[in-house]
Every structure is written in C-alpha cells, then in structure tokens.
C-alpha cells in the first residue's frame, strides 16, 4: 500500500452551535510508517466489510461539488490539503440537518494498491483504550475506531478517470445514517443486478464486476 497523501480534520458538534466547530489541518500528514499502517488497516477493514451501496458521482457539480474539487486535485490545480479543507467545510454545511451527529475525525487518503489508485473519505469516531508506558504504567488512551466504519466512501480513482459509467467506481458504507453522507459525497447509487443483490461487492481488481 502506497500512501500519496493523507490528512485528518475534526468536526466537533458537542457545543451549542448547531453547525458544529470545524478544526482544519493546514497541511497533509508527514509520510511515516504509522500513517501507512493506518491507511493499510483502513483498506483491509473496508475490504472485509460489505458496502452499503456502490455507484457514481452525481453529475450536478453545483449541488454536489466534491467531484469537481477532486478533479481539480487530480489535475494539479489544487493541493490535497486544499481539496480536503473545501470538502470538510462543505460537510459542515450539512451537519445542521442531523441532530444526532456529535462530530468526528474526517480522514482523506489518496493511496495506491498495485496499479489501482483510491481515495478514501471516512468520518471516524474515537474509542476508549489503554496504553502501557515505558515504566509499565497503564494509562487511558483515545484511539480512532477503525473497526466500525460508519461513514466511509472509497473512490476508485483509476476507474473514475477512465470516464463513463461502465462500472461503479464508488463503494459506500453509511451504517450510522446520522449525516447525509451520500449527499456530501454526491453519490448516485448504481442499479443492483438481481443476481448480485445482498452479496459482497468485489474489491479487486479495481472494484469492478466479475
């Protein structure tokens, strides 16, 4: 797994503001073994899960602008941090539609597995855990919960850039239904063939149908 760019922002909706407070990181995370392990684990967890749906970007880029911003990033007109910041600000405009949503870490990752490039967008929660210090003391620790992918989209960039809608290039998990996540991504669900409905969706090669 090769990680090209990764960044995490934070949405806090625990205060009085209905729209929540956005904390945007200025730059991508430095390349490191920890970041690579994080994205590889996310990739594996997504492969093990059953996506809620798969489909395409909505063609209405004015209402659903994420695909336009992604195209600008792919073409080099904006850097990854700028793309992710604009996208997270857009997510912030949708938060008031959900009273149940309390916030979370918004992860964006551009990575490659073999010859296939992906973009992951995941809204992650934290869970309580424990850490052991060098002095062998046990301390509480907050960790990203990657075992429950409540709101996650995987965009097959390689398939998307070939153009057309011959095969779905977005795999989608929306298990929490607390935020209009599909609206945020600009997701149009593809028709499900009767022979494949209810079955796990293929993930390799390129998330295409067998």
Automatic annotation (TrEMBL):
<keyword id="KW-0963">Cytoplasm</keyword>
<dbReference type="GO" id="GO:0003690">
    <property type="term" value="F:double-stranded DNA binding"/>
</dbReference>
<comment type="similarity">
    <text>Belongs to the YejK family.</text>
</comment>
<dbReference type="InterPro" id="IPR007358">
    <property type="entry name" value="Nucleoid_associated_NdpA"/>
</dbReference>
<dbReference type="Pfam" id="PF04245">
    <property type="entry name" value="NA37"/>
</dbReference>
<dbReference type="GO" id="GO:0003727">
    <property type="term" value="F:single-stranded RNA binding"/>
</dbReference>
<dbReference type="GO" id="GO:0043590">
    <property type="term" value="C:bacterial nucleoid"/>
</dbReference>
<protein>
    <submittedName>
        <fullName>Nucleoid-associated protein</fullName>
    </submittedName>
</protein>
């Amino acid at each position: 797994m090769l990680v090209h760019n990764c960044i995490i922002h934070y949405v806090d909706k625990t205060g009085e503001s209905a729209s929540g407070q956005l904390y945007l990181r200025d730059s991508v995370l430095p390349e490191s073994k920890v970041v690579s392990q994080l994205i590889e684990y996310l990739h594996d967890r997504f492969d093990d899960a059953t996506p809620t749906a798969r489909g395409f970007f909505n063609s209405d880029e004015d209402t659903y602008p994420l695909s336009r911003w992604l195209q600008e990033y792919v073409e080099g007109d904006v850097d990854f941090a700028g793309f992710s910041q604009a996208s997270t600000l857009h997510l912030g405009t949708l938060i008031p539609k959900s009273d149940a949503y309390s916030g979370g870490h918004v992860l964006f990752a551009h990575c490659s597995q073999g010859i296939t490039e992906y973009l992951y967008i995941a809204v992650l929660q934290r869970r309580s855990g424990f850490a052991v210090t060098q002095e062998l003391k046990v301390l509480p620790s907050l960790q990203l919960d990657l075992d429950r992918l409540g709101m996650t989209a995987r965009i097959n960039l390689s398939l998307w850039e070939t153009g057309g809608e011959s095969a779905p290039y977005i795999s989608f998990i929306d298990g929490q239904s607390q935020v209009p996540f599909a609206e945020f991504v600009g997701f149009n669900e593809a028709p499900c063939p009767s022979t494949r409905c209810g079955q796990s969706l293929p993930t390799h090669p390129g998330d295409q149908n067998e």
